[in-house]
Amino acid sequence: MIKFFRKIRQQLLTENKFSKYLIYAIGEIILVVIGILIALSINNKNQDGKERAEETIILKQLLGDFNLNLEQLDQKISFRVEFMNSSKTLFKYIDNPTFRNKDSIDHHIAKTLPYATFDPIMNNLASSGELILIKNIELKQALTHWSSNINDVIEDEVIWKNYRNDYYFPFIIQHYQLRTVRDMAYETNVLGNYSLEVGENNDSYVQNNIGKTKHPEDFNALLNHPDFEDHLTRCYAINSWANVQSDILRKRIVKIIELIEQEIKS
Question: Exposed, middle or buried by CB within 10 Å (0-12, 13-18, 19+), for 217?
């Protein structure tokens, strides 16, 4: 093909048809430019297709991660509701001594002792440079802010964990018998829901019962102690606020999932 065009050029020059040669040369240049543009277009389409395929892989991974995050967050919210409900039940026993039942009191004290820890799957799209592959601006912004969004929830969890360890546990040890409460937790599998396999029977945990204490214990004295009411108030208030923050975070996770699903479909 190149020899063919060269032959035409030489013939035009030989015949002194310079004007025709000039027109021909310009036409040849235009053809070359068109060829380059076509090649670039094909290359861009191939590159766009490759990036779109990579984006789809990332989106599907993110969809799985955020569905798991949502499932875990819902579990933590339900755990905190249990803490709060047990606190309210103990408030009723404080306010109405005639309703008091030792086994029930021990059970609900046991349910106020755990703490929920939200440990979401984090993505490193920003640091890895893969975030640029996400085309949807709204989704990209939501993913960028994801790590900061979970901080408020985690901070509230840490507040309750530290308060529980530094103040609530020592109070129970001083004014009641922690062994009794822990044994009730084993018998009723209170902490089984906090294992890595949520929803499993966790028979090995239930079998870890440690028996009742032989030391004197007075649940009436415990419930009548003004500091116990304050500790329950902290339990309820901290976990209640953590759930307020969790509900906000939940809405953001749901929005991210919706955006990802829309992008995958498109």
Answer: middle
pLDDT tens sequence across 152-179: 788 888 999 999 999 999 999 999 988 8
- Measured between alpha carbons, how far is 109 from 111 in angstroms, rounded to an integer? 5
Whether 34 is covered by a domain: the verdict is no
Tell me the two tokens of residue 101.
């039942």
The span from the CA of 105 to the CA of 50, in Å, is 62
149 falls within a domain? yes
Residue 15, in any domain of the structure: no
Query: Number of structural domains, the chain?
Result: 1
Instruction: Determine, yes or no, domain membership for 114.
Output: yes
pTM of the model: 0.76
Distance CA 93, CA 101 (A): 8
Its domain, for residue 245, covers 62-265
Instruction: Give 167's DSSP letter.
Output: I
Q: What is the pLDDT of residues 188-239, one digit of tens each?
A: 777 666 555 555 555 555 555 777 778 888 999 999 999 999 999 999 999 9
